[in-house]
Amino acid sequence: MGNILCFYGETVNVNGVVYYVDKEIGEGAFSFVQLVSPKKSSDERFALKRVLIQLPEHEDMIRREIKCHEVITNKYIMKLIDHDIVEDGDRKEARLLFPYHQLGSVQEMIEVATITKNPLKEDVILQLFQSLCEAVNAFHTHKPAYAHRDIKPHNMLIGEYDSVILMDLGSAREAIVNITSRQEALAFQELCAQDCTAAYRAPEMFEVPSECVITEKTDIWALGCTLHALAYGDSPCDGSALAAVSPNIKSTDIYTNEFNELIKSQLNIDPEQRPSAQDLLVTIKELLK
Asked: CATH number of the domain at 11-99, please?
């Protein structure tokens, strides 16, 4: 990280375009996000994700993320404006330029609602969730189908008109995974532990059978956990394999029975019994009436 940290006010180049660094707005293990402005238009601002590439798998992840942005587009999926991979001696760094969404993350919205003890209203939640399902449906209806694999409130930015923008496509891959051996099962299990946030991870990703087919329904489980977090403050799972097969699903009269049932429908242990993203959109439309 120390090799690519920069002083505020200095410039950074993305494919020959110079940007001024205003401030840092996020940080991860091997990356950080900066608020930047074009050299000739300081009123326009972007979010620049900078990733230190230390291992081949880091570059694989970045290139996979870039490809995903290129093939899956939707107004509720974060748009990749530009990207660059630069080398300076033994240092390699990826730079991904995105629109800047100043309203913050959905996780921050949930935390404010929890602290103020002012739960989000059902219609607001449904509108936010509707846009999220639109984004996820774009992944699932692509040919071949893709799965995001890390849907959670932290990876959703607040958009205009009670909508969300789904971001962080680094874990996204083709949705259908055919497991035919114990070795493949363990390898997939390890990949899930690495890529997917435990509290939003579907049960079939914890204990993977030696012969099975993993589908895009893993995302539907994560959607259910996210909807639960929007309503009740957090995921019904604590990140353990036991919680994944027995989630602590809350249900109060703050919300309608139909809304609570919508949460439960997505948290079915059997992936085949979970609704599709298209099914969810139909149900949401009915509830919003």
From this structure: 3.30.200.20
| E strand segments, the chain | 11-14, 17-27, 31-38, 46-52, 82-88, 91-99, 146-147, 156-158, 164-166, 173-174, 177-179, 212-214
Fold observed for domain 106-288: Transferase(Phosphotransferase); domain 1 (1.10.510)
Q: Where in the chain is the domain with CATH 1.10.510.10?
A: 106-288
Closest CA to 227 of 113, 110, 111: 110
Catalytic residue among 22, 88, 150, 162: 150
Q: Which of 233, 170, 240 is nearest to 199 (CA)?
A: 240
**Distance of alpha carbon 155 from alpha carbon 255, whole angstroms:** 25
List, by residue range, all CATH 3.30.200.20 domains of the chain: 11-99
60 catalytic residue (yes or no): no
Q: What is the pLDDT of residues 27-86, one digit of tens each?
A: 776 788 999 998 766 678 999 999 998 888 888 889 999 999 999 999 999 999 999 999
Structure tokens given for 51: 């990733």
